[in-house]
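Annex B. Sample input.
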Amino acid sequence: MSNTDSIKNHEYLMNTASVIYFLCYIPEFYANWRNKNSNNYNVLEKVVVVVGTSFAFSYAMSIKSQALIINYAPLLTLDIIALFMRSYYAWKNKDRDVRVLENNDVENQIHNPIHNLDSIDEL
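Annex B, continued. Sample output.
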């Protein structure tokens, strides 16, 4: 058995990993869309991920590996979409007042009963 045959026989491992990685985007997209919340730190994290995926995709293109291209192209596309979503919501929420207090509590302007911890004492 040649080395090429061995690689082709194990491509399913890479494809399985890519599908699992792809499924991780579903909760991320849903949370970004549902919460409509992001900040500059979330955007910076996604920029780093896009750069890393871009390097992986560039490597796949340079060695002309169809298996790697098929795996990294959708991931790069999803990373770019997620970056645009996070950037949009970070820009949209740029004026939202969120401050860290001295005792490490977070003060924010969320007016949602689910997030109202004071109402827990009333129960």
